[in-house]
Amino acid sequence: MALIALAADKGSPGVTTAAVALSAVWPRRVLLAETDPAGGDLVYRSAAAHGGPLNPNTGMLSIAATARRGLVPDQLWDHVQPLSGGLEVLVGLGMAEQAAGLAGLWPTLGRAFAHLADSPNAPADVIADCGRISGDTPAVELFPHAALVLLLSRTEPEAIARVRDRAAALSAKLHGGPRGAGSLATPLIGVVLIADPGDSAKLVHQVNDMLVAAQTGARVVGTLADDPAGAEQLAGRRRGRLDKSLLIRSARKVTADLYQQYGAAWSVPAEGPHGSQGPHGSQGPHGSAGPHGQPAAGAGR
């Protein structure tokens, strides 16, 4: 299994919405970690499994003290809260000022996230919502431990230009320089476009051409539907069959494509005491995006 880091360069492409949607349909057990140094959103938007609010002090904030003494991957579960839809979440910081408490700990967290796959008790993939990144964003220190770094982008020309430049900068930082489009360097840098489904095929081709020409080593690995209604359902602010929404249907395709291409490199987990997700990216009747389409968590930035 693996650490998958989601981030964006600028603007509000919906990193948290994408992270929640992908986590909701992930084919195996998954932990959603809100690792944006600017602070998380889910504590304000989502109910806990017990029906009350999430505890803002249990998550990234509480794990800081533990991590300073060393962090065994299984200790992550001590700081996790289940949402009302069943998704397990490491709640983010409350505000950017609290990020100082994690100074120097990001590589430790990255190793723990990546090695949660090897837990003998409760193995899981980790999807990390890193929010907006820049050259000095500390969450970038998670990336060397990731199997995939997925950059989210909308499809306006300026957004595509920014994601191209960010991919090139990350390739230089993580891989030592520009690389060809066929590179299999780890972590793989991929782009996920937030697009109108009707235009997605043409846009994927155009953006891939730009990424190859710039020798970023990145390529488009999928598209998520630009689906405001689905995002509202995911946030619990609108009723409807979430599992039938364009957002969740496109998220299922992205996860299926990722597993088809890279899943062989990720070990198959044993079922731990917390259970495991079903083979079709659903946690079942009480899961994040199970057959009843219950919302898993809040939509994102």
Structural class: alpha/beta
| Strand percent estimate | 5-15%
Can you tell me the overall shape? globular
Distance between the termini: 27 Å
Rounded radius of gyration (Å): 18 Å
Please count the beta strands (DSSP E, at least 2 residues each): 8
Spatial strand arrangement across the major sheet: 3-4-2-5-1-6-7-8
Could you report the average pLDDT, rounded to the nearest whole number?
84
- What pattern of helices and strands is seen along the backbone? EHEHHEEHEEHEHEHH
Low-confidence stretches: 268-301
Number of helical segments with 4 or more residues = 8
Characterize the structure shown.
This protein is an alpha/beta fold. The protein is 30% helix and 15% strand. It contains 8 helices and 8 strands, in the order βαβααββαββαβαβαα. It has helices at residues 15-24, 42-45, 60-67, 106-115, 157-175, 200-213, 228-234, 246-262, and strands at residues 3-8, 30-34, 81-82, 88-90, 125-132, 148-153, 188-195, 219-225. α5 links the parallel β6 and β7 (188-195). The protein is globular, with a radius of gyration of 18 Å.
What key attributes describe this structure?
alpha/beta, eight-stranded mixed beta sheet, disordered C terminus
